[in-house]
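Summary for the funding panel

The consortium committed to producing paired sequence-structure records for every protein in the target list. Below we show the first two records in order, beginning with the earlier of the two.
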Amino acid sequence: MSRIALLSEAVASQVAAGEVVERPASVVKELVENSIDAGARKIEVLIRRGGISSIRVVDDGSGMDRDDALLCLERHATSKIRTGHDLAAIHTLGFRGEALPSIASVSRFRLATREHGALAGTEVLVNGGKIESVKDSGDAPGTQIEARQLFYNLPARRKFLRTENTESSHVEHQLHLQAIGHPEIGFVFVNDERVVYQLPPATHLRERIRDLCGPALTAELLEVPEFATDSISIRGLIGRAGVSRSSRVQQLVFLNGRAVENSTLNFALREGYHTALMKGQHPVTFLFIDMDPAAVDVNVHPAKREVRFRNGTEIREAVVEATRRALETDRASWSRTFQASEPASKPLPDTTLPLLPAQEQIALRRAWSALPLQPTTSPSPTSERPAPLPAPAPIESPAAIEPPPSAIHPSQDFRILGVLGKLYVLMENASGLVLVDQHAAHERILFEEMLKRMEQQGVPTQRLLLPLTLQVSPRDADWLTRHLDVLTRAGIGLEPFGENTFKIDSLPTFLRGSEPAPLIREIIDDLRETSTQTSKLRLGEDMIAKTVCRHAVKANDYLREPELVRLIQDLLACDLPYCCPHGRPTMIQMSFGELEKKFGRKA
């Protein structure tokens, strides 16, 4: 007896739905993507009980006639592609024709649609994948889709759903992605009869991000200068140096309007930021990549989250370069932030409260000078008597009241005020107070000096007394064979020595360790993550960062005034002055407005 049998249409639909419909957020994603493909300018999403009880998506797109309304519920029925060649050039968000029949097979489904200019629309009711009724509808032009009681006919799948609040948060996250990816479209989100947000169409991406993420984050974002090659165009907003998160929650990348996840893009962003990020942190990005659809495969993941590039090196180079250029534009604005708009020899504008009248100041100082400077109680015999404080000189006339001389030093537009805690250099500029971490600043200066010296003079190497052999996997052996010139320029003497084995006869001098083989394997992994255009000295930067950390001035090191001035001047001359090699900030600006708020002088 045959053990193989064809599944029924209902069971096959439910099996397929398991790949497309994971949770209510998946339903919202698929329906909103269909609305965007239909040319909608406004999309409303209404859910109840986290989408488990009800999901309704309303758009003002092109709509459908009765034939299309019925045909769209058939599996693999789509208007996006026609032949297999179309899969190599997908311009739309949806293309498989699986979403609507999958959703209809696991819910109580209602579709109401009407074309613009049509006298009447069409309403289709589906219960668990079976069409119950088809009739005319008088709804507004566009399409309305409602899915109620999700997974009502699959109790096992329903048990895997989380709490209503959790499912609501997943739905909101999906809408965030769609709203940011398409700022020209208006979005309305209603959760349990409560309007969560109502976003009008935005003229610029920054407006949409401000509406969703708040003005504080928006102010920390840099505009990515328009970057374009023959086949790739990149734009968007990325966080300034030092703006990061401990996860990739706000590392958003959109490829041809689709939010995607790809390890190549993650490595490229990390490489573009390089030392501007602390270890373990991830950048905040809203990056938009437009490229030839034929150069990317989006038909990889059932939920279309992951993509595969035909030329991963090209896209990685483009993202790295676009990120670097954006950070370089911040270099000029950063310098203006920490520099005065007027020469340092001119006095800063007086933003303090008016002083007391001169006669009141004289009386106050005389009263203060008359106070006893010795303690009224006798100290214990074993305790040392503190030295008396010198009393201020008597003031006889208002003309004698003069402010102390300003501590102006030849450090461009700064006035160095002193050192706090034997670590933080206090300075004043036209904007307010500036604090400089002298250790982090010196680290950055030494780091860039050593890198430039190595780039100009080459990587110093040392010959090994006894050559070593390194046995690797076939994939690593193939990679090493193709990149021997890269490793040679990086100071590693490597040559084939049998099948999947290499001989090492020289190493960079900055590599220390009794077991060079593990270090070489780490270098291979690091170089794989970097682009081919990246400086081949990158593999030694971690070691350089550790070296300069040991040699930089420490927290308790005393610096004289000329040394402080030189430190600030050298820091401002660095390529990336606003953070140390480990990604920590070197300078912090506190504006007069912030100080006035802290002292209650300004609301």
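The next record, for a separate protein in the list, is shown here:
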Amino acid sequence: MSYCILQIALDTPLDGVFDYRWPCEPGDEPAVGQLALVNFGRREAVGVIVAIRQDSQVPAGKLKDALAVRNQLAPLSGQWLALARFAAAYYHRPLGEVAMPGLPKNLRLSTTVALDRALKKLAKLEDTHDATPANMPALNPEQRQAADAIGGAQGFTPLLLYGVTGSGKTEVYLQACAQVLARDPDAQILVLVPEINLTPQLEANIRTRFPGLMLATLHSSLSEGERMLHWLAAHQGRARIILGTRLAILSSLPKLKLIVIDEEHDPSYKQQEGLRYSARDLAVWRAHQLGIPIVLGSATPSLESWHHAQTGRYRKLELRERAVRDAVLPRVRLVDMERDKPKDGLTGALLHALRQRLEAGEQSLLFLNRRGYAPVLCCESCGWISNCTRCTANMVLHRPEHRLRCHHCSLELRIPHSCPTCGNIDLQPLGRGTQRVEEGLQAMFPQARILRIDADSTRRKGSAQAAFDSVHRGEVDILIGTQMVAKGHDFKKLTLVGVLNPDTALFSQDYRASERLFAQLMQVAGRAGRAGLESEVLIQSRYCTHPLYGAVMRHDYDRFASDLLAERHQAALPPYMYQALLRAEAPELAIAIAFLEQARDALASSTVTINDPIPMTMTRVHNVERAQLLVESNSRPALQAFLTAWVDALRALKSRVRWSLEVDPLDI
């Protein structure tokens, strides 16, 4: 019996690729890219074959035999493996830790029951290859120019579609897709959105436009069986359009010809746990690898993308006008809270505007990016506040549930009847969350139909979509919401947006805070007046002279971005500097700091700046102390070369600390 050596990538924090023996005759070896079942430690695990060798450096006595090769599944392509290898190298993670989480969970089971069932179900589905679009509306000149530029692009072409809210970017995507599919009926198109709640509306639009094509959706709200079926449809090339959130960038798409990244500026495209990758950045690399166009669309592009457009790396396409005839951008007004004192969080000007919309039968949206009833419960007698016992954070008051809840570690406690320190029974909520605003509105407008949409009100599967559907049907007069309602939704009857408490972001230590606040305000303002009705946005602030608010009033992203880029250049911050962040977690802060000091001294470099370790802003989470160390360089290759050597040095350090490295961090 002849044997070959299968090098198999497994999902493990170790080096990630392990040698296994497999019986095979010459010319009858398994294919690179196939899945294999092996014994790993005390468990059985599924991995992907990344190479086949005739010999191994592992002693023969220690080599294990692979248990099975999944022949019923077509191998993952070399292009897919190249993407996984690039991500592993760039983010300095084991190959298996990148490759395997991108596969459906049911595909990683030790048995093939779920795989066989999904393959049988998929085989029964009728192939639909009619790419003829239906109900194609006429485009305005700007839209037509953008759609033709995307649909006619050849080779690797990164395009930044900069369009004001309501300018019809979705229609441009759809008509560009129609052109690509008309040219190549077998083509696959990947469309990414930042959040799950944005998929139903876009999915409905795609199905209506391309009724003869198979559409696959990939996001975490799917059941494991659904995700397996949709992933297989994409892997087999049968699904022509694939719609998903950030994880979809790692899906197997053998016939990929176009990538669309909607709301490309959104921080949700960055994974914040485990493999901390940017789906947007990997999408650009994947388009370059395949030599295909990629579209990055936004009304408020990220400064990195805007900089690339300004320097000619990306081609900029512009949509300056709203798509609906006679529709104009809403008028933005600032309400000075020092002069117009708020009642229950709402100024007189905003209350008057709400009454006008109720009388006219139009809808209003109040945007407050803070869920719960109040950020903190306090005792005015002794100064006690509801701190979390496990985190450096306050416990948020959730009054309808009679709970104090930590939004970081999920600790829940009953609301105390009296102050735990002095016994005072008159405990008071400080500040306002969406629940408290809802309560106040119900008292002030008892006849109004009021709906709150946030992470608390939409916990059950399908509840978010049901809530948005009720808004679209006109069954809601006043909508209260967090960032969930700020982007992507086309509310036809919405004519008023009120923004509550945006000022805190003006004084954040995060240098990206102003960029994010501007994007939030522009996005939520863009929900108003999309159907041509006269609309306005009222922003309550105590700092009405701040330049950021002036830019929002003028809808002037160009000037705002140019000024912010000039500041970043002067301060040597991204996109003019490249960064990586080393985080350390330990039972005590001193231990985490000591490890980072060792890390700082482990490797010298003349091309990289290694800063001193500091505690993280949120120092303690779930009784774990956290610190960080920032490394920077004005050269990406120099930073990557340093990190490659540094990670080896870090692994050699003896420590009880749990550490992680993030390349291109968004939160510092």
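Regarding this second record: The chain has four domains: 3-77+93-103, 141-319, 331-560, 578-663. The chain is about 30% helix and 25% strand.
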